[in-house]
Each structure stands twice: as C-alpha cells, then as structure tokens.
TrEMBL record:
Protein name, entry field: deoxyribose-phosphate aldolase
SUPFAM superfamilies, per the entry: Aldolase
Source species: Gymnorhina tibicen
Record-linked Pfam families: DeoC
Pathway recorded for this protein: Carbohydrate degradation; 2-deoxy-D-ribose 1-phosphate degradation; D-glyceraldehyde 3-phosphate and acetaldehyde from 2-deoxy-alpha-D-ribose 1-phosphate: step 2/2
Taxonomy, superkingdom: Eukaryota
Length: 203
C-alpha cells in the first residue's frame, strides 16, 4: 500500500539548517582520525567505469584494491598486518570476469561489484536491465549497484518504481543489491525521501 507516499512533505528550510549545523561539528584528531580514515578505506568501492576499460587496467585496479595504502604508512601506524583492503572493486558487467580473475590471482577475497540496470541513465527497457543484472551475477559479481528510472519518480509512478526495484532485487539472487537514486535528478527532497523509502520497501 503506497497511498501514503503522495502525502509526504519535507521541510526544506529545516533540512538546510541541520546541514549547516553538521558542518560545525568537531572532527576527530590524532590517532582517532587515523583510525576513522583507515575504516573509511575499508568501506570504499574502488571503481573504474570508463568506456576504455581493459583487462589490464582492471587488473591494476584490483592490485590497488588489495594494497590501497602505502606499506610504510601502515607500518608507521602499526597496521601493516591487519589486511586492510577496500570494500569492493566496482566495474561494468563486461569487466566482472576480469576483476574476479585478477582478485583470485592476487589471493584475496574482495567482492566484485557491478553497476547494472542501465547505469548511469537508467534509460533502458526493464527486461534489458534484468538481463544485465543476471549476467553480472553469472560472471561472478557479489554486489549489484542498480540505478532507478528517474522518470518513474518525476511522474509519481510509485507502484511502478516499487515493482522495478523488486524485480531487480529478485534478479540479483544471492548477490547484495545497492540502489543508486541519482538524487540530483529527482527534483525535490520529498522525491528523494519517497524514492529512498520505496527502495527499502522493495528490498
């Protein structure tokens, strides 16, 4: 039941005020700052999404994913033996096999993520999006980053958006799915909120 979604209201001035306050919060310093920065590295998807990607530059990216921080810096922090890597390597579906093979050869278990579902525009037919997702998973992607059809948001087709995301989630099978909302193209903060809620409801 998505009838409530049309009644959502976002108080933009309050959001802007809160965002300004966040900028004034104190930041951590010293060892705590180093710890948070190292943690941030482990959450990063190291990504290449270029039209001229080749197996060799994907291989270089995978080496960087396994060794994201210089060894001398890690030794200075006494973190050289902690196995710090990035969270995932993200590529287009056609490069998933290259990334899987390169990471396997490097002897690490970093997951391969793949953008799919017509990334970045989302302007492909739903059946094509689902096929692309299934192929990326078949090639070895353990995470799928889908992009929604922004036109469904801009025209208020909330049930259609829910169904699209639900079908994409089903096509992922065991792979983890992340939903890219492209918030800069959704027209309003209310639409961002609605799209976020529907993405969560759809899995």
């Amino acid at each position: 039941e998505l009838g409530w979604i049309s009644k959502v209201y976002v108080n933009r001035p309050a959001v802007v005020r809160h965002a300004e306050q966040i900028k004034k919060w104190k930041t951590v310093k010293g060892n705590w700052q180093a710890a948070w920065l190292l943690k941030a590295v482990t959450c990063i998807d190291l990504t290449t999404l270029s039209g001229d990607d080749t197996p060799s530059n994907v291989q270089r990216l995978c080496f960087k994913a396994k060794h994201p921080i210089r060894e001398d810096l890690l030794k200075a922090l006494d973190m050289h033996d902690k196995g710090i890597t990035v969270g995932a390597v993200c590529v287009y579906p056609a490069r998933v096999s290259d990334a899987v093979n390169a990471l396997k050869a490097a002897g690490c278990n970093i997951p391969v993520a793949s953008v799919a579902a017509g990334f970045p525009s989302g302007q492909t037919p739903l059946e094509t999006k689902l096929t692309e997702i299934r192929l990326a998973v078949e090639y070895g992607a353990r995470e799928i980053d889908i992009v929604i059809s922004r036109s469904l948001v801009l025209t208020g087709q909330w049930e259609g958006l829910y169904e699209e995301i639900r079908l994409c989630r089903a096509a992922c099978g065991e792979a983890h799915m992340k939903t890219i909302l492209a918030t800069g193209e959704l027209g309003s903060l209310a639409n961002v909120y609605k799209a976020s809620m529907i993405a969560m409801m759809a899995g």
